[in-house]
Design a protein that fits this description.
Elements (H helix, E strand, L loop, with lengths): L4 E6 L10 H12 L4 E6 L17 E4 L2 E4 L1 H11 L9 H33 L5 H12 L3 H5 L2 H11 L1 H9 L10 H16 L10 H15 L8
Parallel strand pairs: 1-2
Antiparallel strand pairs: 1-3, 3-4
The protein binds glutathione.
Glutathione (GSH) binds next to helix 1 and helix 2.
Length: 230
């Protein structure tokens, strides 16, 4: 039986507000494949709802009898199960996308978190706020307000950290080259997080990264453009 793919998708207090950097990578990948998706809003603390996946984080997808968690594993599953159109452009592209994924997780995610993490508390569902605050404050070793303090002064440093992306986009329209690939979905999906969850503007309008992000928002029928923002 063919059904649309189910995606457990992190939502805010407002169920329309979808702000997970990892779920957005999956949303873009599913759209790229032309697959229909039904999203199920999921909140921090709703671990029971995704217990069937054997772990506690989103994204989780269900495709008929198959359950896959972790955005990278989902991208590989989609590529292997629905090869056309390709997400990676072959094994070399898949290997390079793995580097982009690692860079996004190890560098980009932390850079963004230090600019918006206190804003997140105000948009997440109230029942998850204590858990979110205590788990993240333990990770940073300080209050979320202390993490975010002085962000205006640190913004230039964050923008500098995007130089590798900027240099590539000066040479070619997409990280994937002539056409968008999962490398674009990784970085654009990650940037959907601050875009949807915070009003703090991370990118300068004249930055090639912002211009690429603008084109990303228009892809797939304006999927990113239509996203609800805080
Ligand atoms: N490596 C995972 C990370 C997923 C992840 O950290 N998801 C967050 C939401 S953005 C989550 O579900 N967190 C639950 C928690 O912290 O309890 C992926 O790529 O999908």
């Amino acid at each position: 039986m063919d059904m649309s793919i189910l995606l457990y998708d992190l939502a805010g207090q407002d169920p329309e507000l979808r702000f997970s950097p990892y779920c957005w990578r999956t949303r873009f990948a599913l759209a790229h494949k032309g697959l229909t998706v039904e999203t199920i809003p999921w909140r921090f603390t709703e671990t029971a709802a995704i217990a069937f996946s054997g772990q506690g984080k989103v994204p989780v997808i269900r495709d008929n009898a198959t359950t896959v968690s972790d955005s990278w594993a989902i991208a590989e599953y989609l590529e292997d199960t629905y090869p056309d159109p390709t997400l990676f452009g072959g094994p070399g592209g898949r290997a390079h996308a793995a580097f982009v994924n690692a860079w996004a997780d190890a560098v980009l995610m932390g850079g963004i978190a230090r600019l918006i993490v206190a804003d997140l508390v105000t948009i997440i569902d109230p029942k998850g706020r204590d858990y979110f605050r205590s788990s993240r404050e333990a990770r940073f070793g300080m209050t979320l307000e202390q993490v975010q303090a002085g962000r205006e002064d640190r913004l230039a440093g964050f923008r500098d950290s995007l130089l590798p992306v900027r240099l590539v986009l000066r040479r070619q329209p997409w990280l994937g080259g002539a056409a968008p690939s999962y490398a674009d979905h990784i970085v654009a999906g990650t940037l959907m997080w601050p875009l949807c969850a915070s009003r703090f503007q991370l990118l300068a309008a004249d930055d090639p990264v912002a211009q690429w992000q603008d084109r990303m928002l228009d892809l797939y029928g304006g999927l990113g453009r239509a996203a609800k923002r805080a």
